[in-house]
Amino acid sequence: MQYTFQVQGMTCGHCERAVVHAVRQVDTDALVKVDLATGQVIVESDKSREALANAIQEEGYKVAA
Amino acid sequence: MQYTFQVQGMTCGHCERAVVHAVRQVDTDALVKVDLATGQVIVESDKSREALANAIQEEGYKVAA
Predict the structure, then answer these.
(1) CA B28 to CA B35: how far, in whole Å?
(2) Could you give the ipTM of this predicted complex?
(3) What is the pLDDT of residues B1-59, one digit of tens each?
(4) Cβ contact (<8 Å) for B18 and A18?
(5) Which residues span the domain enclosing B28?
(6) b/e string for A31-57 if b means 16 or more Cβ within 10 A?
(7) What CATH number is attached to the domain comprising A27?
(8) A60: nearest CA in chain B?
(9) Which residues in chain A are closer than 8 Å to B14, comparing Cβ atoms?
(10) In total, how many domains does chain B have?
């Protein structure tokens, strides 16, 4: 499945890496693309949207949609 | 010596940790205090101001003063 998340609070490359890492903790094989400027995170994964969103939120970022 | 650096580009807690880590690479025993809101970094160290500033800049942040 491909999911698009609108993530708030990512300000820099460290944040980008933290979000990618959080997603990969849930799914090692996930493909993750982050657009820092817009806050959009696109994830290709066979895990659930909820599990991925929770991982991002537990890293300290708000998932708006 | 106590030095005050005006650092640009720190946006989040990761950046704060990256700067603290960079300083500690130069001086393990340095005391480092970062004010993210103002960009002020106060370092207590027996290393030179230049060595500390270089370490912060090599981490990707601009030291303005």
Answers:
(1) 20
(2) 0.73
(3) 999 999 999 999 999 999 999 999 999 999 999 999 999 999 999 999 999 999 999 99
(4) no
(5) 2-63
(6) ebebeeeebebebebebeeeebbebbe
(7) 3.30.70.100
(8) B13
(9) 12, 14-15, 18
(10) 1
